[in-house]
Specification:
heterodimer, A: 147 residues, two-stranded parallel sheet, 3% strand, B: two-stranded antiparallel sheet
């Protein structure tokens, strides 16, 4: 392919200082240019698609295998361990706190615990009371402000 | 009394040798006009933010080179001589001995060192993931190179030489380093335009991408086509990203060997980035090396903009053909996008085709913006990055083709 193209290109070389290029020369530049650019990039499409498909298939196979192993392990576990009725701990929610707020807190905890590899449980939600009054907070802020 | 007369003589001699006298000399007014033009480009870079990282060094180089008697740059040193059967001989020994600061730095442009090194930095900053996930984007990157070749026709009709046609046409690739690479290799001392003219036109239009492209994109597409919402791209594994630069280097360099310096360095930079084991090299390629080369490239390319190469009809023709090249490139990309919209069963938004002209990442951002004008929740950016980076590879291939034909 490379030899074919290079022979195609070299047969039509033009001197840089040549002026008044005729229609034949100009159209050969346009056709050669567009054809070579398309051939090069289509060749890349073919190669990238092929190895993309191979890797995609491999990734899917791996994922399917992992999924099957997980299911098998769960099944084995279910067979050996007697099913114990699971009691879901209901978090103690203080009155006045909306369900949506609790859902947001639980989602945040779930997201953090999943990345840390732990499973955390929300036990209670209550409003915190400010330890200092607004006036004393303002006084501390004023005294500790960097100068 | 003799002391006073000798003092006056010395002062008169100093005045005659000063740059001010140079302005009064034959043709000195041209330098003044060029310095004023450099102020315009400085204004565009600083106040309007037109590609300031390159336009500011270019405009300052333009100022330096037009200061009479400063001898920073000598255009006559760069004239080709015929030695034996080599008609493109340049006496680098003479330049090293007698050249000014900008002559020495300009060797990096003339010897084609700076543009590939800039490509190294670009490669180290580019994520080819969207292109690997959607390889069909390559087609749009190829189509947008149509601007290059159709502008070649326009320049030929205006009676320009083959070197000038090629240099102007490559502006349509919307890729500054590629334009400088091609024009510095093609243009000879007989050419009426210089590398600086090409660089100025290329960078000015690259800065104007958000103004030039949207009207063309809207004129060529219907509201329905612009409203196509594209789904998420598949995730790309690290191994795929590692194979890509090696594969592209081998295929493109074997097909179009003259594109090897640009594509090779682009992909080398990308391999460094994707390897994940050369952080120090990647940081240097992305930052320090890139910045140093940008300064050298900008200031020396600006130095080539001498009065006689700018203040002629050809400069206006270059600027005119440059915008034509850009517009045709955009139109070709969008039209191929439309074709793919039909072939894919209306799942591809044709707006991403315009990003096929390189101008990374500006052209992709324009696709995103025009798409969001129709559907505010449509995120085309990652889809447009595919044709955008394919455009960089495509314009390097087109440059290789031009260099292989015109020599």
């Amino acid at each position: 392919m490379g030899n074919f193209l290079s022979s195609f290109i070299t047969t039509a070389t033009i001197d840089p200082n040549k002026k008044d290029l005729n229609a034949g020369t100009v159209s050969s530049v346009v056709i050669t240019g567009i054809v070579v650019v398309f051939i090069a990039l289509i060749l890349l499409i073919v190669c990238v698609s092929i190895y993309g498909a191979i890797f995609n298939a491999a990734a899917k196979k791996k994922a399917a295998k992992a999924e099957a192993e997980k299911k098998a392990a769960e099944l084995a576990k279910a067979k050996t361990v007697l099913p114990v009725p699971k009691v879901e701990a209901v978090p103690a929610i203080e009155d006045g706190i909306e369900e949506e707020t609790v859902a947001v807190i639980m989602a945040a905890i779930a997201a953090m615990s999943a990345s840390a590899g732990k499973k955390l449980v929300l036990k209670s939600v209550k409003t915190s009371r400010p330890q200092r009054s607004a006036w004393s907070s303002a006084g501390i802020a004023e005294n500790t402000r960097p100068f | 009394m003799s002391i006073i007369s000798s003092f006056l003589d010395t002062m008169a001699a100093l005045a005659r040798e000063s740059g001010f006298a140079g302005f009064m000399a034959d043709g000195g007014w041209k330098n003044i006009v060029m310095i004023l033009i450099s102020f315009v480009f400085m204004y565009l870079a600083i106040a309007r933010g037109f590609e300031p990282l390159l336009l500011l060094p270019i405009s300052f180089g333009m100022l330096l080179t037009n200061l009479p008697y400063a001898d920073l740059y000598h255009p006559d040193f760069w004239n080709y001589q015929t030695v034996g059967d080599n008609s493109h001989y340049i006496d680098y020994g003479n330049i090293l001995q007698h050249g000014g600061l900008l002559d020495i730095l300009y060797m990096g442009v003339k010897l084609q060192i700076y543009p590939p090194l800039i490509f190294l930095g670009i490669g180290a900053m580019t994520d080819f993931g969207p292109l690997i996930a959607s390889p069909r984007s390559f087609l749009m990157g190829a189509a947008a190179q149509g601007g290059i070749f159709f502008t070649f026709v326009g320049a030929a009709i205006l009676g320009m030489s083959a070197a000038e046609c090629g240099s102007i046409a490559i502006i349509g690739g919307a890729d500054g380093p590629t334009s400088i690479y091609v024009s510095s290799k093609l243009l000879t001392d007989k050419s009426t335009i210089g590398v600086g003219t090409i660089a100025l036109a290329a960078y000015t239009y690259m800065a104007l991408v958000p103004i030039i492209q949207p009207p063309i994109m809207k004129a060529l597409t219907t509201k329905k086509e612009r409203s196509v919402v594209m789904g998420q791209l598949r995730p790309v594994s690290k191994t795929e990203k590692l194979i890509f630069p090696v594969l592209v280097t081998i295929i493109i360099s074997l097909m179009v060997p003259s594109a090897a310096p640009l594509v090779g360095m682009l992909m080398f930079g990308n391999l460094l980035k994707e390897s994940g084991c050369c952080d120090r090299l990647v940081k240097t390629a992305q930052n320090e090396l890139m910045n140093i080369i940008t300064i050298f490239l900008g200031v020396t390319v600006g130095a080539t903009t001498q009065a006689d190469k700018i203040m002629n009809l050809q400069f206006a023709e270059v600027m005119g053909l440059g915008v034509v090249a850009f517009s045709i490139g955009t139109a070709c990309g969008v039209l191929l996008g439309k074709l793919m919209y039909i072939v894919s069963g209306k799942t591809i938004n044709p707006l991403i085709g315009s990003a096929g002209v390189s101008a990374v990442p500006m052209a992709a951002r324009v696709s995103q913006k025009v798409g969001q004008e129709e559907v505010p929740t449509n995120y085309l950016l990652m889809h447009a990055m595919g044709p955008n980076v394919a455009g960089v590879i495509g314009s390097a291939v087109a440059a290789g083709v031009l260099l292989a034909i015109v020599k």
